[in-house]
Amino acid sequence: GVTSSGPNGNQVISGAPSYDNLYMIDGATVNENLRGQPHDLFIEDAIQETTVLTGAISAEFGRFTGGVVTAVSKSGGNEFSGTFRDSFQSPKWTAPSKGDTSARTKNINQTDEATLGGRIIRDRLWFFTAGRYFKQNNPKNFQIGDNPTSDGIIPDTYTNGRKQRRLEGKLTGQVTPKHSITASMLDIKDDQTNNFNPTFPAMEPANFDTQRSLPNSFRTINYNGVITNSFLIEALAAKKAFTFVGSGGDARFPDDERRTFIEGTSGTFSHGATPIGGFGAPLFCGAPTCPDERRDNKNWQVKGTYYLSTKGLGTHNIVAGYDNWMSTLRSDNHQSASDFTVGLYAAGQILTNPDGQSINISAAPDGNTLLIFWPILESSKGTDLTTDSIFVNDKWDLNNKLSFNLGARYDKNQGKNSAHQKIADDSKTSPRLGVTYDVFGNGRLRLNGSYSQYVTSISDGNIADASSPAGSPSYLYWYYGGPEMNHVSSTQFFTQLYDWFKSVGYTSNRDFLLGGKTNGLASRIPFALKSPYVGEFTIGAGTQVGAHGFLRADYIDRKWNNFYVNETTLATGQIADPLLGGNADITNLVTSNDLERKYHAVQLQGSYQMFSRVNLGGNYTYSRLRGNHVGETGGSGPVPTAGPNSYPEYLNYANRNPVGTLGSDQTHKLRAWVSYDQPTHVGNFNVSVLQRFDSGLPYSAVGLVDPRRRQCNSAEVSLGECTAANLGKRVSIANPGYNFPPTSANYYFSKRGGFRFDDLTATDLAVNWNSPSLGGKALIFVEAELRNAFNEQAAVSGDTSVFTNRSSGNLLAFNPFTETPVECPNVAANYTNGAPNANCLAMGANFMKGPSFGKARAGNPTTFTQAGDYQLPRTFLVSAGVRF
Question: In whole angstroms, how far apart are CA 417 and each of 296, 324, 335, 462, 730?
Answer without folding.
Answer: 15, 19, 20, 10, 43
